[in-house]
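2024-03-11 09:14:02 INFO receiving multi-entity request
2024-03-11 09:14:02 INFO entity count = two
2024-03-11 09:14:03 INFO echoing inputs for audit
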Amino acid sequence: MNRLRAVLAVLAMLIVPASAAPLERAALAADLCGDGAAQARGSERVVQAATDASTDELAAAGRLLAALAERRLACGSEGALILDRAGAAEGHDALTGATRPVAEARAPVLGLRQRALVETARAAVALLTGESVAARAAGLATLERRAGAVPDTILARAQAAETDPGLRGSIAGAAQAAALSSPDPDKRRAAVAAVAAAPSGAALARLRALRSEPAAAADLAFAQALDVGIASVERAVRIGDGLAILYNGLSFASILFMAAAGLAIIFGLMGVINLAQGEFIMLGAYATFGVQEAFRRLAPSLLDLYLIAAIPVAFAAAALVGIVLEALVLRHLYRRPLMSLLATWAVSLFLVNLVRVAVGTQNLQFAMPPYVSGGAPLYADFVVTWNRLFAILFAAATLALTLLVLRRTPLGLDIRAVTQNRDMAACLGLPTRRIDRLAFGLGSGLAGLAGVALCPIYSVNPGMGSGFVIDAFMVVVLGGVGSLMGTLVAALGIGGANVLIEPLSGAVAAKVIVLVGIILFLQRRPEGLFAARRRR
Amino acid sequence: MAHLTRRGFVGSAALLAAPAIVRPAFAADTVKLGCLFSSSGTMANIEGRLNHVVRMAADEINGRGGVSGRTIEVLTSDPASDWPLYAQIGRQMLQQEKVAALFGCWTSVSRKSVLPVVEQNDGLLFYPLHFEGDENSKNVVYVNSPPASSVLPAVDYLMGPDGVGAKRFFMIGSDYVWPRTINKQLKGYWKSKGIPESAWREEYVPFGFSNFQTLVNQVRSFASQPGGQPIVVLTVVGSSIPDFLREFANQGIAATDVPILGLDMVEADLEGLDTAKLVGHLNCWAYLQAAKGERNQKFLADWAAYVKAKNVPFSADTVIDPMVSAYDSVHLWALAAAKAGSFAVPEVRKAFAGLSFADPSGYTLTMTGENNYVSRGVFIGSVNEKRGFDVLWQSPDAPKPVPFSPYG
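2024-03-11 09:21:47 INFO inference complete, emitting structure
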C-alpha cells in the first residue's frame, strides 16, 4: 500500500512539473513515509515550494518534517499519523487531524543523508513561519551552514516578511553571501565581502575554491576582491585559532587547579599524601547529584539552579568526610608518611566501592541547565562552550575565596603558621591538632567543589576520581609544596603546555613530553616553582 | 566494636588493596566457569555488567537441569582494567580452580595478554567483543564479529548513496592494539578503493583521556577543508566515549555536519548524556537493544527481572551487544559441552562444528569446524533522543566471518 502511494506520488510528480507543484499534504506525507529516496524527494519539494507556498501549508509541512525527524511519524496503511511523543499509542491523522490508534504503523528511521535534507527543509520552514525571533534565527543559522542548498528566493521572501530589524539584517547578509556565483559582478564582489565579514574555516575554503575557478581569472576586480577577502578571513581564522588555544589551555588549567587546590593545602600543611583526594572529588559530584534529585522532588521549577545550590552542599559533604577520615585514621599516622599513603589509598578503594554498592556504577544522569550546555561561536572558528566557561569562572572564584580564607581570616593565619613551623606554632599555644583537622576539612571541601565544577564536563561514576590524583600531585609538586599561587601557576603551565603540544604531536606524546619536562624541571629545582619558606 | 590498631588497619588496607580477589568454591557435582571482567578502573562501567550476564545465563541453564547433569558455578574476579592482571587471574582460574572455560576481556589488549595463558594451559576463552580480527587461536572462541562483518559494512554504508557519501575520514582512537589495527585495515580498505592518503587523519589519545577540546577543534577545521563529506571514525574506549560526545555536541557539530561512527559506542555510553544534540551518530554491532523479535523482548525482560531480583548495580533497561554476546557464549559453551558429553577442552572444541544458537538479536548464530569464529548478523544503529540506538540498517542474514583482513 505504501509502495502504491509512493508510486502514485512519483506519477503525480511526473505529470505536474516540480517547480509548479503545490505543497500537497497527502503526497508529502506519502513521500516522508516512503523509502530513503522518497524522503529526500519530499524534503526537497518542501524547499522548492517554500518560495510560493502559503504559511499555513508550510507550517503543516513543518509539523510533518518535525514528526519524521523526531520519530513521531507513524506510517500505516490508513495514512500517516503524527504522535505527540515517540512510541505513543495514538496520534493525529496527518491530513484530517482526527485522533486514531497507531495499531500496526511503523515509525521510519531517518538515514543520515535524509536527515540533513529534512533539517534543511525544517530550517527553511522555521525561517518563514517561526513563531519567535529565536526560532527564525535558528532556521537562518542552519541554512547558512548549508550554503547553496536552498534557492535565494527563500531568503528574499524571508527578508520581506521579517519584522525584527536585527534578524532582517542577518537575512540580508546571508542573501548577499549566497550570491557568490551570481553572474552580476557587483553582486559577486559584495558576496565576497559578506562572506569575509563572517570569517570561518568553511568560508575560507569557499573563497579559496572560487579563487581557483576560471571565473576569478577572467574578472580581475573579482579576483582582487577575493584575494582581499581571503587574506582577511585567513587572519581572522588565525586569531580565532589562537583564542581557541588560549581558551582550551585555560579550561584544562582550571580543571587541574580545581583538582589540586585542596591537595595543595593538605599536602602542604601536613605532608600527608592523600590518595583519596580523587574520591573527594567524586563525593562532591555525587552530592551535586543528590541536590539535583532533591530539587527535582521538592522544587522542580527551580531545577536549573541546582548547580549553584550544590556548591555549599558538596563542600560540606566532602569536608565532613575529610574531617572524619582525619579523626579516625590519619591522626594516628602523622609521623609515618608511608603508612598514611597506604591508609588513604585504602580509604579511596573503600569510598569507590561504597558508592558502587550504594548508588551503582552507571554514569549519573544530570539535567544540564542551559548555562552549562552547548556553546556560542564567538569569533571565526572559536566556540565558547558554556560548561568549560563555568569551570573557569568556578576555579577563579574558588581561588579568590581560598586566598581570602588563607590570608585574611584567623583560621588562615593559623594554617599558615602551622605550615611554616609546626613546633613553634605549638609552642606559642596554637592547637595544631585542631588546625590540622580544619585544614584537612578545607582541603577535602575544595575537592568537593571540584566535583561540582566537573559535573557538566565529565561523566560522573564511582571511578571518576582515580584519573585526577596523579595530575593533581603533578601540579602540586611542580608548583611548590604548600603554595596556592604555585599550584595556580603550575596548573596554567601544564594545561597550556598540553594544549600547545597536542596539535603538533598528538595527545599521547603531549602527555609524555609534559611529564619529561616536569621531571627535568624538578631535577634542577626539587622544591618546585614557588617554595614556601619553612622550618621543620 | 573491636579496637582498631594501626597495625591491624594497615593489614586490612593491604587486604583491600590486594587485586586478585578470586572467590574459591568447592562442590562435587558442579562445573566451574570463570569470568575475567573488570569491576574497577576505566572499563568498570561497561565491563562490570558482563559478570552478571554470565551468572544469569548460568542460572538459566541450571534451571533446566545444568549441563550433563552438572550444575554450573560461576567464579568472578576483578582484573581492575589492568591488562597483565587479566593473564594472572586467568592462569589462577585455569590451574587452581580448574575452570572448564573462561569468559572475559573487553579490550583487545587484555585478550592479547590472556592469549598465551589459555594456549599454554589449553583452556578456552570466550571473547564477547567485536574486534580487529587477524587472530585465530584454537583456544579462543571469537563470539563477536571481526571487521569484515561489522566495521566494513558500516563504513561502506556511510560511503554509499544511502549514507552520506563520505569522502574524508578523521580517525580518533585510544592508543592500543584494537584502534591501531582497525585503522590500519580501514586505510588499506580506502586505498583499495582509490581514496588518496590526504583524505584521512589519524589521532590517538591515552586510555581514560577526557580533555577533547583540542581534538574537536581539529575535527572542525578538518571538516571545513574542501574535498567532500567528512566523517569521524571513533575508536576510543571506556569513559572517553561520553566525554568526546559531550564536547562534540557542545561545540555545535551535528551528525548532519560530521557524523561519528563510534565502533565501541554502546547504549551504556549514552547514559548521563543529553542525546538530543547527538541524534544521528552511528554505531555498528551484532546486536542492538532495539532489535525486533520476541527473543529480544524475552531477553530484555529476563535481564530486568534479574537486576531486580539480584540487586545488580547496573541499569535494568540498558542492554548492550557484549552482554548478549556473553550470554550467547555461555549457551554456546553449554551446547558444545552437552553435545560432546564432556567438559574437556579438546572434546568441547570438536563439538563446535555445526553448532547453532538462536540468540536475542534475531539471527541464528552458527559455527563451522574451520575456526572458532561465530557467524553473527550486522546492525547499524543511529543515536536517538532517548539515549538509545534505532536500527538504521541490518544485514539480511549472518555473513560468514573472515578472520584475516586482506587490507593490511
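2024-03-11 09:21:48 INFO post-check: Chain B touches chain A through 75 residues (CB under 8 Å).
2024-03-11 09:21:48 INFO post-check: DSSP finds eleven helices and 15 strands in chain B.
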